[in-house]
Amino acid sequence: MKNLLKILILIILIQLTTSCESKTEREKEIEKIKNESNQILIEIETNSTTEKITNEINLNVNIDSIQKEWLKIHSDSAELGLIYLKKTDSLYKTKISEIKENKELEIKNEKEEIKKNFEKLKQKFNFKKDEFQDIGFYTHKTWGKYYQNRKTLTSGVNSDGYAWLRSNYSSNDWLFHTSIYVLIDDKKLSSPTVETYNENNIQENDGGRIWEIVTYNNTDILKEIAGNLDKIIKVRFNGSQHYDDTTLSKSDKQALKDCYELSEMIKKLKE
Fold first, then answer.
1. How open is the CA angle 44-45-48, to the nearest 5 degrees?
2. Helix %, strand %, coil % for the chain, to 5?
3. Residues in the chain where the model's pLDDT stays below 70
4. Residue 10 half-sphere exposure, CB side, CA atoms within 13 Å?
5. Distance separating alpha carbons of residues 184 and 232, to the nearest angstrom
6. C-alpha of 181 from chain center
7. What distance in Å separates the CA atoms of residue 168 and residue 189, rounded to the nearest whole number?
8. Cut 0.70: pTM above it
9. Domain map of the chain by residue range?
10. In the β-sheet with 125-130, what is the strand arrangement from edge to edge?
């Protein structure tokens, strides 16, 4: 905003210096040069501001020093002032180009590193593609086909990088849980509530054994678990009348972290 104000003052100065009623050919020539100079100044400022916003490139344009040079322009050195401004404009454009090239190379190298880590991490997952929806799903190998007989948290990731969190409750009696609390040291996290009639809240039973599987679209808890593998993480299943607690195993915590990281890698690779 300050720089734009300075540009405004500059325009006023131009108008003051060119307000004489009778102008010689030389004065008209100088006025033309000053107008051209002013346009270059505005272009430098605009380019600098645009690059800073869109590409996070801060050129640190010193409008004060450029203005001082411009103010030195008089009848004998107008052309020299214009040449100076054109050189300044060219230098900033070159600098923008160099920074963009370096940034693109940095992004390319970063993606190559992410791709390499992704190929390594996905070996921990089973992948199944739904041909009708043209999307695939990653399931961590830690959770085999019998994981539903446990009280724990699981996760899944699709090929677009979307991840979800699930609370898996299994027992001899119904709890009808609709949400969970997660305790990491003294920090308590709460999941969204998913009512029992919601399609993301599934209850099944067979031979006296019950299973309750609730899926949450919020992954804040998943992110917190991923960053706290070294801590004891407790989970409370909140039922309609009662609750039940469990502590996540080391392997479950690692699998949840793997899911979170896989999700982040896929999203970055798709950017």
1. 85
2. 50, 25, 30
3. 1-93, 95-96, 146
4. 27
5. 6
6. 27
7. 17
8. no
9. 2-114, 131-270
10. 125-130, 135-140, 152-158, 163-171, 209-216, 201-206
